[in-house]
Amino acid sequence: MSMKKIIHKYNECLGCGNCVAVCPAFWEFDNAGKVKPKKGVKNAENGNYEFEISEEEISCNKEAASICPVQAIEIV
């Protein structure tokens, strides 16, 4: 099974919630009013979250990445 890495550039996030609307299984609002992934680890150096998902889980995350107005979600 092929895995994909999701990188969320938290500091660039506007908190618009588009990703939460299209992919609520993976994205949620935090206490600061920004969005963060429900799973993943926050990199202390750059503030980005990173997590891996399977090909079966990629669909709504692709939509979340494409709908983000500042391209804060990257799929590698």
In short:
By secondary structure, this protein is α+β, with helices and mostly antiparallel strands. The chain is built from two helices and six strands; from the N terminus they run βαββββαβ.
Structure in words:
With 76 residues, the chain is of the alpha+beta class. It is built from two helices and six strands; from the N terminus they run βαββββαβ. It has helices at 18-22, 58-67; strands at residues 3-8, 27-29, 35-37, 41-42, 49-54, 73-75. A hairpin with a 5-residue loop joins β2 and β3 (35-37). It is globular. The two termini are 15 Å apart. The relative contact order is 0.35.
Write the SSE topology.
Blueprint: E1 3-8, H1 18-22, E2 27-29, E3 35-37, E4 41-42, E5 49-54, H2 58-67, E6 73-75
Antiparallel strand pairs: 1-5, 1-6, 2-3, 4-5
Any key phrases for this structure?
single chain; 4-stranded antiparallel β-sheet; 76 residues; Alpha-Beta Plaits; alpha+beta; 2 helices
State the secondary-structure class. Answer: alpha+beta
Mean pLDDT: 95
Q: Do you know the CATH architecture?
A: 2-Layer Sandwich
What count of domains describes the coordinates?
1
Residue windows where pLDDT falls under 50 for at least 5 positions: none
Q: Distance N terminus to C terminus?
A: 15 Å
This entry's quaternary arrangement is single chain
Q: How many helical stretches?
A: 2
Mind telling me the CATH class?
Alpha Beta
Helix content, binned percent: 10-25%
- The CATH topology is Alpha-Beta Plaits
Strand order of the largest sheet: 4-5-1-6
Largest sheet: 4 strands, antiparallel
Shape: globular
Work out the strand percent.
Answer: 25-35%
What's the count of strands? 6
- The gyration radius over C-alpha positions equals 11 Å
SSE series: EHEEEEHE
